Structure formats: structure tokens, C-alpha cells
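Reading a protein record of the kind used here takes little practice once its layout is understood. An example of such a record is reproduced below.
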Amino acid sequence: MLKNKTALVTGSTSGIGLGLARAFAQAGASVMLNGLGDPAAIERTRRDLAAETGADVRFHGADLARPGEVATLVAATEAAFGQIDILVNNAGIQFVAPVDEFPPEKWTAIQDIVLNASFHAIRAALPGMKRRNWGRIINLASAHGLVASPFKSAYVAAKHGLVGLTRSVALEVAETGITCNAICPGYVRTPLVEGQIEAQARAHNLPRDRVIREVILAAQPTKRFIEVEEVAALALFLCGDTARSITGAALPIDGGWTAR
């Protein structure tokens, strides 16, 4: 499906990003990974993914909080593979606190990683996509790009901004063969969320199953996690030709959360 295509996925050394990278590689694309972590562990991940899929998989450790490094990441991907056909802005961080107690540096960091880095990556990747009259930009927003929750002001603001950016870009490139969409997942089963479950169990002195149902998935009517593979399947669909008329959309995959 994606033979001769190249995908750049930010925040792809674990979790949703790695799942997306794996799906693209399995579909025949060359993939540039990006993220933070132990270099040896990242290299194992890169090597294993390449061996598993037969794809050309590389890694670049750009710090997305630095605009210059975002531009370098895009340029390095184009230099390695010749082009970027698919750009997935997935990287994100979280911090929870009441707005009047929210550390300004945490606010800035979340905006930089979630929203500003997405702008800089799109800005750098678009010229090449326009020259080829084809491109797929997918922004990993969140159910929090569509609705709000208390104590997550920075994250909610950044994700709402990402949905707005998605719509503006889609309108600008509507006649160029490029689409730009946002995927808005609810709670996805990832190592990060598994850690939150354990932390909430300790904090509330509740068993794991009650934490999942009554705390983590309280807003998710299906009362089950979204699986990474479900998000990856939607992303793959958006990259196909049958999705060429889907652009500027904020697509929830949230177990009914935003249907309330």
C-alpha cells in the first residue's frame, strides 16, 4: 500500500508513535523514527522494526522543543530517503495541575512539543509535498482536542490548537493533492497509561480494575481502552487514495467520549 513512500513519525520510539511507525513499515514505507530515550534501547527498537518488516527504518534524535532541530529533522529525513510523503506529528507530553498553580515552564514545554513543533514540521515538509502534488499530514490530537477536562489546561489548549492548525493547513493545500487530518484518540493502552494506572491505584488505594473503570476510563462510554492498532489502522486508511477527500477532519476514536 505504501511502497516507495516515506513516513516521518515524531515521538515514535514507544507507544502510539511506534505503533504507527510499525504499521507504515509493514505497509511498505520507509520510516524515520524520532524520540527521546536510552540510545541503546532506541537502536534495538529501530533494528528490530527493520528486521521485522524489511523496511528501511532510521532514527533522528531531534529535540522537538527547539524549532531549529525540527527543521533539521525534516531535512535529514529528506536527505536520507529523498522525500517525505507522510508526516505524523505525534510527540506529546503531559502535566496535570490546577490552572492557578500550573508551572509556566510546563505550560511552555507542552505548547512547544505538541503545537509549535507540529507547525514547524509542517512548515518544513510542505514544500516538498507541494512539488510532488501528494502528501499526507496526520496530527495526533486527542479527545482533549475536542473537549476539555479539569487540571489539563496546557494539554487541552495545545490539542485544541492542533485541531485548528489541522483545519487551516487543510484549507490552504486543498487543491494540491495533500490532505491534513487530526486523529483524536481517547485513552489508548500504552506503557505511559499503564504507569498512570499504577500511580492512580496507589493514590486512591483502589484495585487496578476499579482504577481503570472508575478513574482512567470514566469518560469513555465503552469502558475499554483504545488499542494502538486501531489508531494505526485509521492512520493507514487516511494515507490511502480512497481517503483523498478526507481533509481538515478531526476524527475521534474515543469509545464514544466526545459523543456525550
In short: The first helix runs from residue 15 to 26. The radius of gyration is 18 Å. The beta strands are 6-9, 30-34, 57-60, 86-89, 135-140, 178-185, 250-253. The chain has a mean pLDDT of 96.
